[in-house]
Amino acid sequence: MKLTAGRVGVQVVSSIDRYRQLARELPIESDRILEIGCSTGESTQLLARRAAQLALRNLP
Questions:
Q1: What is the pLDDT of residues 23-50, one digit of tens each?
Q2: Which of 3, 11, 56, 57 has the fewest Cβ atoms surrounding its Cβ within 10 A?
Q3: What are phi and psi of 22, to 5 degrees?
């Protein structure tokens, strides 16, 4: 699914490799992203480079 400005979307993936690929490709500068289960933050850094706002929620 290709997201465009003004749309709301949810991405659910089964592998970290696919997640990181999407983190590099999908976000645009106006996006606000909620990342749930950010773990060590490696993918978070990819998202932060692209998105306008990034909120995190790590799970126990």
A1: 888 888 888 888 888 888 888 998 999 8
A2: 57
A3: -65, -35
